[in-house]
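Good day; I would like, with your permission, to put a structural problem before you. A protein sequence and the structure tokens that stand for its backbone fold form the material at issue. Thank you for your consideration; the sequence and its tokens are set out here:
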Amino acid sequence: MKILKNLYIKYYEMFLNKQLNKKKIIIYVIIFHIVMLLVPVVLNLFAYILKPKKEIMIPIEMLELAAPEPQYQDPTPTPLKNKDNKTDDLKKKKLKEKKAKLEKKKLAEKKKLQKKKLEEKKAKLEKKKLAEKRKKELLKKKIEEEKQEKARLKAEQQRQKIAQENLQRQKEYNEKLKRYKAAKQSQYSKAIVNYFYQRWSQPNKSALGGRSVSVTVAVSIDKQGNVLKYKIIKKSSISIMNNSVIKLLNSIKKLPVPPSGSLDLEIILETF
């Protein structure tokens, strides 16, 4: 490192004294950087090679061995020893029974827990089945309601169609009846006009000044053909003509029976 430092100082002084050109300076700078990069790598490599290898440590567990129990001879006489053995056996028996009871209790609790879980599972399944059944019933009910609604709509459409057909038939019938009544009334009107002309004593043309004169009369007739009232709507300018029409109306009290009940007629009486 000291050598590099000296070289750096030397070339820096040469640079200051302008003894190096630009191209040489660039080359030296590149070489310097390469050296500075390689030096740490080489040093690390040497350190790794010279580093002592670690010893492999194998962990060993130390087991503690129980010391053998010393053999103890009870100095008590033989009868007392038998009594202690019986007491130990009784204790062992009680302990065994207690252990059996605990095992039995644990087994009972386990069975109870399993039974509870099974019942919960069964209840869930029943609930699920009930929900599915209810869902199916609701779907069935909905389908049935849709069918009923479709049937109702169809029946309503059919009823409307029949009503329209009946209305159309009634309309056609009314039109026919109207035309028939109009035709009958027209025939009746013509018959009444002829009836009036047959009974009317027309004034002489000389009295009328050789002119054609007309009078319009309104007559009301009931369904039996009786003349209820009459009225001259439009008079002529000649009194003889008007008087002859009034005389005619006063002489007629009954007319042929009208075909469609009572009616009002307008009759034009004109001289020819």
User: Anything to note?
Assistant: The domain at 200-270 is CATH 3.30.1150.10 (Fusion Protein Consisting Of Minor Coat Protein, Glycine Rich Linker, Tola, And A His Tag; Chain: A; Domain 2).
